[in-house]
Amino acid sequence: MTLSSELWDRGGAPVYDQIVRHPFITGLTDGTLDHDAFRYFIVQDSHYLRSYSRALTLIAGRALDEDAVSMFALHAANAIAVERSLHTSLLGSLGLTEADVDAAGSGPTTTAYMSYLTAVCATGTYAEAVAAVLPCYWIYRDVGRELLKRSSPDPLYRQWIETYGSDEFDAVVESVLAVTDGLDVSASERERCHRHFSTTCRYEWMFWDAAYHKLDWPVG
Questions:
Q1: Which residue ranges does the record assign to the Thiaminase-2/PQQC domain (predicted)?
Q2: pTM over 0.85
Q3: Which among 4, 32, 157, 203 counts the fewest CB atoms within 10 Å?
């Protein structure tokens, strides 16, 4: 069995099943999700993408071959491009500005997720770093496919859902899976990869859940 298949079977599939049943996702597709929850999600996703780009830059600097260096560096640049595109499309539809995003700051779950990713990418092995960032690629792609199947009666949510599903992003995910399966890892390193992959899968669920509940810092 490939490393990516092991990671998904042990840590990805159980969490993914809970994500697609989460009330944030079902609310998107049946149109009942509170628009304030969606605003929260978009603001926090903007903060997340900025940090995710930096994490990918760290991986690019540690990659073991030139193709992987180029790939992760390109993905880092693309994450910033997506974040900027967000500002010129959905933010306006939501009545938000870039200043609103900056003023809102990073919420508790976003901060924890970003901090964990950065720490693994900076201090773990190259293989551990790849395993840690993989859920964002993989779950994002698969949730997107599910959302496209369901669509939404809400025009705002439908507009966002329709940004998913490009063949280009599918190719991006497959390229990262190929890198994952090409990693030469020891038994102990493999277990650490499992731990990091499972943890960031949980953070993916927590990210949706934080948006649904509009989670804020309890003090301050």
A1: 14-213
A2: yes
A3: 32
Q: What is the DSSP string of 45-91?
A: HHHHHHHHHHHHHHHHHH-SSHHHHHHHHHHHHHHHHHHHHHHHTHH
Separation between Cα atoms, residue 34 and residue 80, nearest integer Å: 27
What's the pLDDT tens digit per position in 51-100? 999 999 999 999 989 999 999 999 999 988 877 786 677 888 899 998 99
> Can you say how many angstroms the Cα of residue 170 is from the centroid of all Cα atoms in its chain?
14
CB atoms within 10 A of CB 60: 19
Taken in order 142, 148, 151, 157, the sign of the CA dihedral is positive
CA dihedral sign, ordered 11, 14, 18, 20: positive
Q: So which residues are the catalytic ones?
A: 136, 204
Sequence-ordered list of residues with C-beta below 8 angstroms from that of 206, at least 6 positions apart, any chain: 109, 112, 113
